[in-house]
Fold:
Amino acid sequence: MHGRPRKASKPEEEAASAAKAVKLRSLQSQFMTNHHDKIYTKEAIELSTKLLEINPEAYTAWNYRKLAVEDTLSRIESDPNLVNSIFDEELRVVENALRQNFKSYGAWHHRKWVLSKGHSSIGNELKLLDKFQRLDSRNFHAWNYRRFVVELTKRSEQDELQYTDDMINNNFSNYSAWHNRSVLLSSLLAQNADGFMPNEKIPDEYDFVHSAIFTDPDDQSGWFYHLWLLDQTLNVETPLLTSAWPSHGSTIILSGAGCLNSSSSKFTTFCSESGSFPLILYSDQAVGGVSSSTVTIDSELKGNEDLVWEPISNKNSQVSCVWVTHLKYVSSDPCEYKVKIRVGNSPGIISSRGYNFSAPYEFVFTAHVHDTVEDSQEGIVSWTDGFDIWDAKSKDLKSLVTLDRLEAEIDFEWRQEAIDSEVECFGILADSKIGKLTLARLLMAREVMVSDDAVKGVRYEEILQLYNELMALDSSHYQYYKDEHSVAFLHKVTSSSESLSRHLFRYRGMNNLVCLRLNNLSLSRIASVKKLLFVQMLDLSHNELHSTEGLEAMQLLCCLNLSHNRIRSFSALDSLRHVKQLKVLDVSHNHIGKHSVDTTRYLCSSPLSNSEWSQDGVGRQNPGLVTKYWDAYFVLRDLNLKQLDIAGNEISGDEFSSFVLQVVPKLVWLDGQKLGN
Amino acid sequence: MIDIPPYPPLDPSNYDLIIVGTGVSESVLAAAASSSGSSVLHLDPNPFYGSHFASLSLPDLTSFLHSNSFSSPPPPSSPPLPPSNNHDFISVDLVNRSLYSSVEISSFESEILEEHSRRFNVDLCGPRVVFCADESINLMLKSGANNYVEFKSIDASFVGDSSGELRNVPDSRAAIFKDKSLTLLEKNQLMKFFKLVQSHLASSTENDDTTTVKISEEDMESPFVDFLTKMRLPPKIKSIILYAIAMLDYDQDNMETCRHLLKTKEGIDRMALYIISMGRFSNALGALIYPIYGQGELPQAFCRRAAVKGCIYVLRMPITALLLDKETGGYKGVRLASGQEIFSQKLILDPCVTVGLESLSSLTDQQNETLSVLVPKALINKEKVSRGICVIRGSVKADVSNALIVYPPKSLFPEQLTAIRVMQLGSGLAVCPADMHVLYLSTLCDNDDQGIKSLLSAMSNLIRLPDPENHQSDSVVENDTCEAKPILLWRALYVQELVKGEYGGTISSMPSPDGNLNYNEIVESALKLYEQLMGSEELFKEETSVENTTEENDGGVDIED
Structure:
């Protein structure tokens, strides 16, 4: 059924198909007349049978038959024998149609419809399926229908699992069988059925799929199943809190806008005009239901009784990995406060897959509220000087960031063991592309799981090397490998205090901001953000970034350098809209405006054509510019920038500059020039 | 011997070809020659078809082995008739050569066996099977002989060793996948090698050199075992490929004792035969099939085909003498045991028929020349094949009835020089009563003792010998392991000479059964002889796809094109 080359048809075959077409056309037109006139006589139904036997793809004919059956039923409902015979006839027609083409959607659907009416026996369905699945063991229609019948007959999932065993043993190049296996196992594992504990069953499944992968590494079906298994191994159902800011046991200094005199402070200093600081919760999967009732906060900071928690998500949804609230403080009232936070004490935090947050977590930090000494200055932020090297020996970092997954009671042991044995196993196949990729994925998974400091991070070099090799070997998937390489690199950087501190600096200019410099590393994707929540100043210049996705969680970020990257439009900066503290943004020397959206292809010239902007001051004054620079408008309007660098992009120029000034009236520095008032 | 009932004289008494013996090669020739229009008289001294390829009941088998062995007294020959000088012929008496030696037959449960004695169809030259892609199958299809035989699949094949464990031969993608004894690396290496062979085969048939991988010419000429090493296959896998797939006999790693070191080219051919066999017939389970009612059915099928084409058959009819032209010394005809003299252009003889040395001395050089192929020669190569037959109760492997087991060289004991092949057949093939199995064993050997030793070693590995002494001594210790093994009911051990066939112009001699698992070399030699006899006349030209009827029989394999 698969892998057979198509042959050119012979003249006699073409003649036969032409004759068939003529016959079909006349049948079709007669049938359509019947259908239109709602004629459901025996002869008319017979005609549709003939049509379907020649062409099982005639959807209208299947629908007509459904109408005809319902019409007949409405007249003879009292006689159960007659009802049964009508449905039996339908099953017979479907069977004949399937013999003609067993991949006919309409026919399989009609059969489901007939059976769902509940008048026919379902005993024969599995036998019929066995026949079809012998003809083509991968036929996904048959597998789909099989799941339907199994559900109707209440056949046990264990029996069905055995069936996939048999099919796979027969020929393991069977995507459908592996897929059905994953469906059945998911269900059995979720039920915790007898003999289906994940810690026992999943290692067994690894052994099973190894045979397929190692016997024929060129066959993809086993690899797909392996990927699914890896997913099952890594994913813990219950959502976990993986990081938070301020972190447990840390001390932060809060003040109003301006500078502090104690500029050598080793603590994170947070200045705010509005007198509030963010509290960030970061969980390993998207959750909903974070609120003042599910997260309790004990502190003497006043005015924080009814906190509003906000999901940080680009999709405007009510679930997110990152949740933020803002705690108020009064900077004129210097004092030290202890803040205690309890997450998940009362139920309500639920993952998008429906699992409850079941590992309550408690953490405490200290907030020093300082009085502002000097007035704030509107000086330009430089990315070239004013940085102090981070003292790698100091223990400061420990107080800034929780580098380890917050403790929780999950069955980690079998997962680690499973991944370890996979890593060992796949070393053999590392001469193929898929082998290298799988090994790299496994090593990454292992690094994520390992909590022992002694062995943590030791395999990152290997992972990076594997992705380098893949980039050289397989140019058509270069970008994917590049992205994974970046992810692995950032995991490596954040894997230990030592490696992270090499990239950390203090920026003297603004209260010793914590600055992370990841420039010139050819990064194409941002990752490990959960370990970087404390960063206030981020240098990502001279990389290969296409987007700022992921940065939205860095709620403390006030200065960001994205110069010399591959940003193509302001839409790629969309995630920055959530970063309310952002004051300084450098996107110079990117590709913004180079590949503008071809708006002529759309009915509306921009997404803003008929929406809210007309209410907006800028929109009213200058609708032409807003329409032209709608993507910039969308992002800049929500930011509170003081300093913007945009030079070196296609978009930059006098027109755009004047537009920026209108959208960001508080801007002080544009492309290094101080703006006059 | 057998009392020969009076036969009516044969009419006509003149033929193109007389063939004596109904073994596979003789029967193939008879069918081919009759099909091409020659008049053929096919004789056999035995009351059954098949000669040394026959399948017999236990008593018949016993008496056949005894009467054809060295140990038995020579059959009382009637006093030589005086040379019939009244004709223009000189007659030369023929002597029967014994093919078998060291024949030893023992029965352990005589009553039961006697009760069922007629339900056995036991092969004389087992173990022997047919590969689905064998030349013999092609020949059956071509000749139409397939209409007279039904086959069933051999369910499984195993590799054994001294531990008594039987491991599946991973001979296909699915089998490699399912195999529990191979490590993942071994699965990977084995499948890679299969793919290499397949891709090599594809490239040689499709002339598509660019896309597929080919094995280099240099490698093709090197020893197969070295090529396997070069492909980094571990010893376990090498042994499976060499002995259980390529079905080699001699230890390829031992240059001193190996009589036949296989080249890669031949190794690839043997693997190709196996691989193509796997997928040839949709209703066959694996590569190997076996005829229902025993392998004696094969020669019989060709004989039936020959009979349809006009060949005349006379069983229980030995020939006693050859008739030579007095003047020229050329072959004229034969004298039958009935006394009748029959004439033919050419004569083909069973390997057992020879000329007594004493009668040679009185002949002229020309006459000697005519008879040259019948003079027993001092064998240069003393290679023999030792065979064993066991009737057992139970099976050597649970849930498996028909199976092939190979013990590679050195797998049972260090001095084991050749592979030992064992085949178990069950009642599903109508060769024995239900709940019993017949085991066939064979191995090549230089002398009888060596051969019998190997067979006994394999037997004790698989089955329980009901030796009363043995039973008492280790009944306590080995009870657990013994309990699972099937019990021996009847056993035959014998060593068979390997006689080569020879073309001698008017008189030719056919080969004895060889030591191989299939019929390919036997059929090949028959076809070669046909070519020498008939010139380039096409074989079975009119039979192609005649009378092909498709039958769906339970578990049977239809060999159809």
Notes: The two ends of chain A are 75 Å apart (CA to CA). The first strand of chain A starts at residue 241 and ends at 245. DSSP finds 21 helices and 19 strands in chain A.
